[in-house]
Design brief:
CATH class of the largest domain: Alpha Beta
Helix content: 25-40%
Bound molecules: pyridoxal-5'-phosphate
Distance between the termini: 36 Å
Number of helices: 11
Strand content: 15-25%
CATH superfamily of the largest domain: Type I PLP-dependent aspartate aminotransferase-like (Major domain)
Shape: globular
Number of strands: 17
CATH topology of the largest domain: Aspartate Aminotransferase, domain 2
Strand order of the largest sheet: 4-12-11-10-7-5-6
């Protein structure tokens, strides 16, 4: 059997990681400013995370959701504390798409309505309703097409008001900072308007925090910069630092019913142990504050590089545009300077490193960016 060839691959084989670095099969070291797409939140193979998973593996790797699992309650309690949402409820699942799929379903169950308002350039995953709410027709199969999703221009308050007057809205789904869409921040007044219109029209405000959440912006949920609470926050990526785990964080007024949502693997004890380790490290190592500090430092320095345009972001979720002349910068930075970065189409570079990135590592990245921009001579790493 061979692999189903759906990923355009970098010509590299990564075989191990530690902290902010990964190594390839030839033992060459790379600085990881991409975090495997915002997944590595506390650093590759963090010792506390490894120990927590190993310890859990020796005790119990799996049992079904038909019995009490104390580790579910431990995780829900810890997540409530660290995210400052102690009265919210947690539904555990396995991926970002699944979290959004469940959030959208829950909103429809709760309101009895069908229309979802989603944003232009938004990305919510590849399962049926999540992909229908994603603004990229090339990944929406004919069977996923639905009239239940209406797309609005991002941050357009007038369009939002008009949509609420035209449709029976079940939910509005929005990223606090669009990731795949190129690091675009939802405005405070737009998020406040969503909150007000959802309140006035019995609709559910879903904050897709899969990429921008879990402390990445310097605050646990990036949407909360707007000073209003969402009804549902969805989380995945950074939640397990690489162990697949996702969550739907649900406000108290949304009531559960037996059988309404369900999953076989969601909330498995290994995933919960990984997720608990992540929250413990975020707290103990002050990683949200670190994301704020290192993020501000990096953005400041990047703004001083004349070749880069529109440096933007919050915390350690940073983007900038490349002019045509620098179109191959990402490739140069990777293959000549040994630094992983992310991209968004057409020419946006995305930085999504571990929240534990140190000043020394930030400086190393800046040095390598200078080298890639100023010379064509490879430097050794
Ligand atoms: N939502 C956002 C904002 C994302 O960036 C992604 C993935 O990139 C998803 C949802 C889907 O997550 P997953 O790939 O875990 O299904």
């Amino acid at each position: 059997m061979k692999l189903f060839d759906v990923y355009p691959l970098q010509p590299l084989a990564i075989v191990r990681g530690q902290g902010a670095y990964v190594w390839d099969a030839q033992d060459r070291r790379f600085l990881d400013m991409y975090g495997g797409h915002a997944v590595i939140s506390i650093g590759h193979s963090h010792p506390h995370w490894v120990a927590r998973i190993e310890d859990q593996l020796k005790k119990l790797a799996f049992y079904s959701n038909s019995v009490h699992m104390p580790i579910h309650e431990q995780l829900a309690e810890k997540l409530g504390l660290v995210s400052e949402k102690p009265d919210y409820q947690l539904f555990l699942c396995n991926s970002g798409a699944e979290a959004n799929e469940n959030a959208l379903k829950l909103a429809s169950f709760h309101t009895g309505k069908k229309t979802i308002l989603a944003m232009r350039n938004g990305f919510h995953g590849r399962t049926s309703l999540a992909v229908a709410a994603t603004d990229n027709p090339s990944i929406v199969a004919p069977v996923n097409q639905t009239e239940n999703v209406v797309f609005l221009p991002f941050n357009d308050e007038q369009a939002l008001e008009t949509a609420f007057s035209q449709y029976e809205v079940a939910a509005v789904i929005i990223e606090g900072i669009q990731g795949v869409g190129g690091i675009r921040e939802a405005s405070v007044s737009f998020l406040q308007k969503i909150r007000a219109l959802c309140d006035a029209n019995n609709a559910v405000y879903i904050a897709d925090s899969v990429q921008c959440g879990y402390g990445r912006s310097g605050q646990f949920f990036a949407h909360d910069y707007a000073g209003v609470q969402a009804d549902i926050y969805t989380t995945a990526k950074g939640m397990g630092n690489g162990f697949p785990v996702a969550g739907v964080v649900i406000a108290p007024h949304l009531k559960p019913k037996y059988g309404m949502l369900g999953t076989t693997f969601g909330g498995n004890p290994l995933a919960c142990a990984a997720a608990l380790a992540v929250l413990e490290v975020i707290e103990q190592e002050g990683l949200m504050e670190n994301a704020r500090i290192q993020g501000a430092y990096l953005m400041d320095a990047l703004r001083g590089m004349p070749a880069l345009e529109n440096v933007r972001g919050r915390g350690l979720m940073i983007g900038f545009d490349l002019p045509e002349a620098q179109a191959d910068l990402r490739k140069k930075v990777l293959m000549e300077q040994g630094v992983f970065t992310g991209e968004a189409k057409p020419r946006v570079v995305r930085l999504l490193p571990s929240l534990a990135l140190t000043r020394v590592e930030a400086d190393l990245f800046l040095e390598k960016m200078h080298a890639a921009l100023l010379t064509d001579v490879p430097i050794l790493h």
